[in-house]
Design brief:
Blueprint: E1 2-6, H1 23-31, H2 33-39, E2 50-59, E3 69-78, E4 82-91, E5 94-107, E6 112-113, H3 118-125
Antiparallel strand pairs: 1-3, 2-5, 3-4, 4-5, 5-6
Length: 136
């Protein structure tokens, strides 16, 4: 599992003083960088082998400005050419959001999905969770 902590900016809030719901997918995408590095260590977009097929986000509690956030990222499924990245957002010891991104290993020259190489599959497996990470 990968973890990343940060403090939300004032500009991340909405008119009600909570964290704006549009920020969570952006934070989740940023926290997927260690997963991207498994495929492209230099993050060279000229050799990028991934596309995003689907995301879903569940909001579980209110989030606030000025309080540290932690994103937890794990792999929850590995298929032939696709895999699921499961993520949780925590604040003050409480899970406040969770979501899954379906990523596809993609050959841009052939414009089709490609089998995940065995060496990368092994790296993904190191971060595989049987179900959503423990809510503790």
């Amino acid at each position: 599992m990968f973890t990343e902590s940060f403090t939300p900016h004032f500009s991340d809030t909405d008119a009600l003083g909570h964290i704006n719901n549009t920020k969570v997918p952006i934070w989740f995408e940023g926290a997927r960088t260690p997963v991207f590095r498994l495929f492209t260590p230099t993050l060279d977009t000229a050799n990028w082998p991934l596309i995003l097929a689907k995301i879903d986000v569940s909001f579980e509690a209110q989030m606030y400005y000025g309080e540290t956030m932690e994103v937890r990222t794990a792999i929850s499924r590995i298929g032939g050419s696709s895999f699921d990245v499961y993520q949780e957002l925590w604040q003050n010891g409480q899970r406040v959001a969770s979501g899954t991104a379906v990523m596809v290993h993609f050959d841009f020259k052939q414009q089709k999905s490609a089998v995940i190489p065995e060496n990368i599959r092994q790296l993904l497996t190191e971060h595989l969770v049987e179900s959503s990470p423990d809510a503790s």
